[in-house]
Amino acid sequence: MAAVGLALMATGCGGGSHENLALDPGAGDRVTIKMMHLWPEAGALGQHQIVNKIIAEYEADHPNVTIKQEVLDNEQYKAKIRVLSAVNELPDVGLTWAAGYLQPFVEGELFAPLDDLLNGELRDSFVAGTTEAYAVDGKTYALPLEFNIAPVYYNKKLFRQFHLEVPKTFAEFRHAADTLAAGGVTPIALGNKDRWTGSLWYMYMADRIAGSRALADAIEGKASFSVPGLVQAARNVQDLVDAGAFEPGFNGLSNDEAKAIFLNGKAAMYLVGTWELPNFTTNRDIPQDFRDNVGFFKFPTIEGGQGNIDGWVGGPGVGLFVAQNSEVKDEAKSFVEYFVKRWGEQSVTDAGVIPATKVDTATVKLPQLYIDLLDEMNKATSLTLFADVQMKPGAAETHLNQIQALFGKAVTPEQFAAAHDQVIQAGK
Q: What local confidence, expressed as pLDDT, does residue 6 receive?
């Protein structure tokens, strides 16, 4: 990934360009705001179109302003942001994740506080608890756009073909996976080259066996990953690997490649966040017959486990930041405020995304899959933030590498646990 970042660095440029700062929309002075995001047309059509629409509207309302976009896929984006932050050349406006991911940028004074926006026209716009994930020492450094949970999506047609019911227990889930595999169908699409994808499987196992508190305590360093329930979660992951539950070669496949396998009807199940809802509801590039046959289920309970089937892995998705050293910081903040106002309802109606801002769902027509997931969110007993987002950068990188090693059976469950404890206790 470092090699990718260095290759991209030559094309990266930070800060905005301008002749004179002018907040008056009618002023003639030209302002360019550089925005970098991770919604390419090929992989996130709904979001991509919304961004273009909002930018077009903003430029029409502010004739002196040009928004210059750079669009990368998820992993390219992470690599380039890392490189640009090292030389303090971030775009004027970009996307960040919350909690532990955000922390180093704040400590490096790379992100501007956005509390003035929160205390202005955006006051009371956000779902309770979402902006807090982007706060450090009482200041808010990004404004969330999405709220995500991670269900197991499944192909109803394949389930009907093999006479399978939606599993509510892990034993039923294993029966479904074994039946599909015996019938020559890949049970689960997984692109674990990106590593966070496999982390979802481990986190749910840990939650269902040891309970959400045990996993949270281990991540925070208050307890050990070597407690029996968390070790058993790692063992369950490897049991699924041994059972042939995942796409062959999964550790070498990207998430986009695995998603394509599911979208093409070649795999029956796919665990991923609700940011993929557009592909299952509103994306007209995906055949209607497939979209009509996508359902979801909650990660099953595990016999003898401490977790609740209404506990979810998820949390706030990406949020907008403004670079602290932006030469057009005021204009960038104005654009972010405008963007957030227009994102909410449009993201619902045009992309099927669950926004972090409040939306009156009674006034908009929603896909049934979306409505069903909103209902489940309202019943949630717990929400565990994605592990790599919670952790500090060093621990997150160790976690992701260990996830890939666990799925590849390059480490034992006990070694997996010990590696986590070591890096978390070191405070990295």
A: 22
